[in-house]
Design a protein that fits this description.
By secondary structure, the chain is an all-alpha fold. It is globular.
């Protein structure tokens, strides 16, 4: 009997996780049971993915850069990658502003609901504001300073320092290009083997993906705020989802125009990574799966995936940027503010830059949102208004982030003639004998 494809297994795990969580909410002991006996398996699954994120970036980027054998190739691919990421981010923010100005979800928030939400989430909002205050007070070149690590081992000890790890990996790879080939060969052989080991670990971890996703979704359901708060913010959530859906449409259109690949081909190839991104809310945790799907199922050569995708997981946060635009205007509407065109153009610029600094972990976009709110003159206390629905929307916007990474990698690969037929077409090809 043929085994179900990975993305179907993950989808089934998600459905059963939601149903199990809803069942547990009907019992007084359900919350504690889920937190004590179900959620830990989801946490273990996420920790396994995070465990290999830094080794994967080091191995794949060093290998990818050193395989270029020519500095000019690196600058050509890097320039196209960064430029494409910036363009898609600006498009995402613009779509978010367009949707939120048409739907006007903030007008549905009553004074009573507003007061209740602010009181309920004031503590969480204050902590996010405090975290963001440090970034607001930093100098104009602080982002550049933070890019260069003073100690690579310290930088590699936290998944929040991905940009520093990427900087070191690219720097190390350039060094391998510049030294004689005989001297570089043993080092490159080591990273080739190291990269193969990490990819095999990914295969093993993904065998547990349906169960990990089940545990994550079950825990999310039992820990969710009350249904009344979700209903009050329903229009806001719908606005974000409309914008995110439109952005996925933009990716599909770009892939079709620039690579001539059909929408079905693209979605089928990336869907397991999309579903995992949805359940984990982490581009970094999903990165190993994204790289495997793009390379083996979308036909992008490793030389491109090992360079474009790790960078994308850190700086290409289109879904996050779109959400920040919608959230900022929504909060302004809820407070009765009328944002000018200039203020909204400022949101475009700030959200684009803020997305580059967002860590690829759950909830990081909330911290960066405070900076966007401050730039537009919107009360930061309004952040509490959206806490009730942030987690499920975080799951959706992470899905868009990962989809954008895959789309850009295909476009960059096509531009440098590194796009070919996929190596793997189904589950049985990838896991023979299973």
């Amino acid at each position: 009997m043929k085994r179900l494809a990975l993305h179907w297994q993950i989808l089934i795990g998600m459905v059963f996780g939601v149903l199990f969580g809803l069942l547990m909410t009907q019992f007084s002991w359900g919350n504690d049971f889920t937190g004590d006996w179900i959620k830990p398996f989801g946490t273990i699954f996420i920790n396994c993915l995070k465990l290999i994120a830094v080794p994967l970036i080091l191995a794949s980027l060093i290998k990818g850069v050193s395989d270029l054998k020519d500095i000019s190739k690196l600058s050509k691919m890097g320039g196209r990658t960064i430029a494409t990421y910036i363009i898609t981010t600006v498009i995402a923010v613009s779509i978010g502003l367009l949707v939120v100005n048409i739907v006007k979800p903030g007008s549905a928030i009553t004074e009573e609901t507003r007061t209740e939400l602010i009181e309920s989430y004031k503590g969480d909002a204050d902590s996010k504001i405090a975290d963001a205050e440090k970034q607001k007070n930093a100098g104009p070149l602080q982002a550049l300073v933070d890019l260069v690590p003073s100690n690579i081992f310290s930088a590699a000890s936290s998944n929040r320092n991905m940009l520093q790890v990427i900087f070191f990996a690219i720097f190390f790879g350039i060094g391998l290009i510049l030294i004689p080939e005989d001297s570089a060969k043993p080092v490159k052989s080591f990273f080739d083997g190291f990269n193969d080991v990490i990819l095999k670990l990914i295969d093993l971890i993904m065998l547990a993906a349906p169960y990990g996703v089940f545990a994550l979704l079950a825990a999310l359901v039992v820990e969710s705020p009350s249904a009344d708060l979700f209903a009050a913010l329903g229009m806001y959530g719908i606005s974000v989802l409309i914008g995110l859906a439109l952005m996925i449409g933009v990716y599909i259109l770009f892939v079709w125009i620039f690579t001539k690949k059909t929408p079905a081909f693209f979605i089928n190839g990336i869907s397991p990574a999309q579903l995992l991104a949805f359940s984990t809310s982490s581009s970094a945790a999903t990165l190993p799966v994204t790289m495997e799907r793009v390379e083996e199922h979308l036909g992008v050569e490793k030389e491109v995936t090992s360079f474009v995708l790790p960078i994308g997981a850190t700086i290409n946060m289109d879904g996050t940027s779109l959400y920040q635009a919608v959230a900022a205007v929504f909060i302004a509407q809820a407070f009765g503010m009328d944002l000018s065109l200039g203020a909204q153009l400022g949101i475009v610029a700030t959200a684009t830059l803020a997305s580059i600094g967002s860590a690829a972990v759950p909830g990081a976009g909330m911290v960066m949102l405070v900076i966007v709110l401050a730039q537009a003159g919107i009360p930061e206390a309004g952040l509490a208004l959206i806490f009730a629905v942030d987690r499920p929307l975080d799951m959706c916007r992470t899905t868009v982030n990962v989809t954008g990474d895959a789309a850009v990698s295909m476009m960059v690969a096509k531009s440098v003639n590194k796009l070919s037929d996929p190596k793997v077409k189904d589950w049985d090809d990838h896991y023979p004998g299973k």
